[in-house]
Amino acid sequence: MSLVAGRKQPIVRPQHPLRTEALRGLAPWSGAAVLLTLAATLAGSAGRWQGGWDETAAQLHNVLLVVVPLAAAAGCRQGGRERRRHTEELWRTAARGPLVRFLASALPIGLWTAAGYLVAAALALLATWPYAQGGRLWPTALPGDAVAVAAAALIGQVVGRLVPTRLAAPLLAVAGYLGLGLALDRLGFGRSLKPAFPVPDTWVPVWWQPVAMAVWAGGLAAAAVLVHTLRRRSTALLPLAAATAAGALLVQTGDGLWHDDPVARRQVCDTSTTPAVCVNARYAGLLPQVTDALSGITGRLKGVRNLPVRWEDHPGSPRPDEAELPMVTPFGRSVVRGRLTDPQQYAWEAVAALRLRGDCGERTNARVLRADDAVENYLAPNPLRKAFDDEDAQGDEAHRAELRKRRAARARLAAMDEDERRTWLSAYFAARGACDVGGVPEL
Predict the structure, then answer these.
(1) Lowest mean pLDDT: which of 113-122, 140-149, 183-192, 376-385?
(2) Which among 23, 325, 341, 376 could disulfide-bond with 313, CB atoms 3.0 to 4.6 Å apart, if both were Cys?
(3) How far apart are CA 298 and CA 308, in angstroms?
(4) By C-alpha distance, which of 150, 162, 155, 171 is closest to 27?
(5) pLDDT at position 120 over 50
């Protein structure tokens, strides 16, 4: 306290410049821009990731293709601020050194953009949680991705200070987008170094990949900052060496940086039906819905012989005694937010998988096709069957004649008693499973 005119006056201490930059100016707006951009991007594609942990994690990683250029553009805009205000000479007379002044301006941008990305990621994970159908959360890539976003902002600020044009920020954003999306792929090893390397939904990173990516991106940013701000540029050799070592490790490992989710190798099954119904363990919560969608088929097949043991949902081709379960991925078509969108269509696809086991080529004829149509119509009719029939009914005489034969075959199969129909279906599935066209019974 001090005495002025007989009264005590409070001593006003100036705020630290880092605090001022963090709470005012471009930095908070940059974080908000990243958050809103990600929110809009993720909301527009929510049907494709909401409901699966792996899908959500892959989407959060792949959106770096947009976030990294945006963060770089924000840093570039911040870097050109003093030039636009014509205060460069004034800043050079400040007591603080160039590195301290740079960090006071750049760190808030990096931290805010990384925070915007992490908040959007947290919101996406919360949006997935009520609809997740199995698997487990793999957030291991998020720390490395957040460091890459912050590093892009720092490098962007260096570019903004070096490039004297107002178009530097948008041009850097475009160049970053093209570089991440296209240019590095042409180098062969480039995709291992890309923070935004797109990955399939079933891939998860090895435990050290996020650490190596953080050192790679952070080391490059630190080296660029030190070269730009210090007289002794040899100081930048340490972060540059760290980035080089991390980059070499990433390049040498290549495709080994990511591996299949071990959960995807397992299935969960309902063996109370014939055939049994199995779904991939990543979507174990879908089993009751899938079983219910196929209940009409399994009920009509009760007592029928020569059927596959199960509908399977594991990577690769089905075994000889299995049929392939209709795909539920990628999300957005058969499954949206943890729900089957069209159980009738799904059941029809499951019947097609039952009768088209193995690779039988094109060995078929009109009689077999009519038998196939009758079986499909009995077990799970094609949702578009009426439209196809109406089209044939309006066609030429050949199409109308074939339609009459198909309808007659459907009627004969439906009119059989239970024992006769089970015997006929047993012979049908035996012939279809063995690719024996001649063995398909008459209708």
Answers:
(1) 183-192
(2) 325
(3) 12
(4) 150
(5) yes
Classify the C-alpha dihedral 170-173-176-177 as positive or negative. Answer: negative
CB count within 10 Å of CB 170 equals 13
CA-to-CA distance for 191 and 436, rounded, in angstroms?
48
Residue 217 token pair: 């991106």
Q: Cα separation of 319 and 87, whole Å?
A: 73
What number of other Cβ atoms are within 10 A of residue 337's Cβ?
17
User: Position 301: which residue type?
Assistant: L
> DSSP letter string over 255-296?
GGGEEE-GGGG-EEEETTSSSEEEEEGGGGGGHHHHHHHTHH
**Secondary structure (3-state) at 322:** strand
Confidence (pTM): 0.83
With a cut of 60, say whether residue 308 has pLDDT above it: yes
CA-wise closest residue to 53 among 269, 343, 331: 331
Contact status, residue 68 vs residue 149, Cβ threshold 8 Å: yes
DSSP H helices in 26-167: 26-44, 46-49, 53-62, 64-79, 81-85, 88-92, 98-128, 141-162
> What does the alpha-carbon distance between residue 382 and residue 280 come to, in Å, rounded to a whole number?
25
Q: What is the CA radius of gyration of the chain?
A: 31
